[in-house]
Design goal:
Elements: H1 2-14, E1 18-25, H2 28-34, H3 38-44, E2 62-63, E3 73-80, E4 85-92, E5 98-101, H4 108-111, E6 125-135, E7 138-151, E8 154-166, E9 179-182, H5 196-202, E10 210-214, E11 223-227, E12 240-247, E13 250-254, E14 256-259, E15 262-265, E16 270-274, E17 281-283, H6 285-295, E18 303-304, E19 315-319, E20 322-326, H7 328-331, E21 332-334, E22 338-340, E23 342-344, E24 354-357, H8 359-362, E25 365-370, E26 375-380
Parallel strand pairs: 2-6, 4-9, 5-8, 16-24, 17-23
Antiparallel strand pairs: 1-3, 1-11, 3-4, 3-7, 5-9, 6-7, 7-8, 10-11, 10-25, 12-13, 12-26, 13-16, 14-15, 14-19, 17-24, 18-22, 19-20, 21-22, 25-26
């Protein structure tokens, strides 16, 4: 009995809940502006946010438009290898691969970021597999390998990850993060690589097969992603559970979008993806036009009077029979001048309209991503 108790305690000690702090860094837009490069970047890198979810809109590779990070970036620190080599990564629920720059990268983007050196790790295992990911504003190419990845207190051994050899363009060069850690489903992972959280679950490294996210509105601190647990002190009321409609991205069915009780978009129901890797709220151009007309945003520039913010209504996302309001203080971006936090995407889908609930939405709600039951939960932040 004594030995059984000891073994039970050992097993429990290996199942962890770990919280990784996320830093809200200087935006890519701000960095480019400070270097006098913003105008050229916007002219030379047109993109379609929908190409992240529909790669055929870009090319045959998985796509993730990094220009979504231009207005906000949330990133945290992980380590790879033995002894550990540290990297800042974007924790992205809209993609599934982990990759970081490598010492073999010849691009300018790699010169001012941390680079993984395989020869410095005793636990590194090479493969012959290549990795290519096309982004809306550039791309990365490299190869896959295995090594120990440490995230907070969790040690994830034999994790497959990408090492970049090329990172063309300026998006990576002026971003404050080194790489990306995808938290979506294995079905969308490039080159069939097992995502980090799947490896954690497979190895029994988390006490529950879920993770949760809190994005603070504060300038620097407070945000986190928690693996294996839920911190109830960060939300008020109860968690509202919503079943997934697809096991690719964290996709759910939305009932409608309303303002002042009037349906202005998604009138017949639509699909929505909850994505920490997208800054804004994105949807079909017709719905976005309705919203921007309603709030008085100028055509083409989506500029809006900052003084109007206090009188604008909530936009309400009706999901699974529950109302999730987002106030004007969240959906209007004030960076000296004010603009709409909405963005148009138009994609052909068999399920109708597609909306992306990015960081503007997530900052209002504590989100639980439950892989055990294929569902998400939302609760108002405390």
């Amino acid at each position: 009995m004594k030995w059984l108790l000891l073994l039970s305690l050992v097993a429990l000690s290996q199942c962890r809940v770990t919280k990784v702090s996320l830093k809200k860094g200087k935006s890519l837009r701000q960095n480019l502006k400070e270097h006098g490069l913003l105008k050229d970047f916007l002219r030379n890198h047109p993109y379609n946010v929908a190409s992240k979810y529909f790669p055929n809109l870009s090319n045959e590779f998985a796509s993730e438009p990094l220009t979504n990070y231009m207005d906000m970036e949330y990133y945290g620190t992980i380590s790879i290898g033995t002894p550990p080599q540290e990297f800042s990564v974007l924790f992205d629920t809209g993609s599934s691969n982990l990759w970081v720059p490598s010492v073999y990268c010849s691009s300018t983007s790699c010169t001012n970021h941390n680079k993984f050196n395989p020869s410095d790790s005793s636990t590194y295992e090479a493969t012959n597999e290549s990795l290519s990911i096309q982004y809306g504003s550039g791309s990365m190419t490299g190869f896959l390998a295995y090594d120990t990845v440490q995230i907070g207190g969790i040690v994830d051994t034999k994790q497959i990850f990408g090492l970049s050899e090329t990172e063309p363009g300026t998006a990576f060069e002026y971003s404050e993060f080194d790489g990306i850690l995808g938290l979506a489903f294995p079905s969308i992972a490039s080159s069939g690589a097992t995502p980090v959280f799947d490896n954690m679950m497979n190895e029994g490294l988390v006490s529950q097969d879920l993770f949760s996210v809190y994005l603070s509105s504060d300038e620097q601190s407070g945000s986190f992603v928690m693996f294996g647990g839920i911190d109830s002190s960060y939300y008020s009321g109860s968690l509202n559970w919503i079943p997934l409609s697809a096991e690719t991205y964290w996709e759910i069915t939305m009932d409608s979008i309303t303002m002042n009780g009037e349906t202005i978009a998604c009138s017949s129901g639509c699909q929505a993806i909850i994505d920490t890797g997208t800054s804004l709220l994105a949807g079909p151009s017709t719905g976005i036009s309705n919203i921007e007309s309603y709030i008085g945003a100028s055509d083409g520039t989506v500029r809006i009077s900052c003084s109007a913010m206090s009188s604008l209504p909530n936009i309400v996302f009706n999901i699974n029979g529950i109302e999730f309001p987002v106030p004007a203080s969240a959906y209007i971006i004030d960076s000296g001048s004010c603009s709409s936090g909405f963005e148009s995407i138009d994609v052909p889908t068999s399920s109708g309209e597609l909306w992306i609930l990015g960081d503007i939405f997530i900052r209002q709600y504590y989100v639980v991503f439950d892989r055990a039951n294929n569902q998400v939960a939302l609760a108002s932040v405390a």
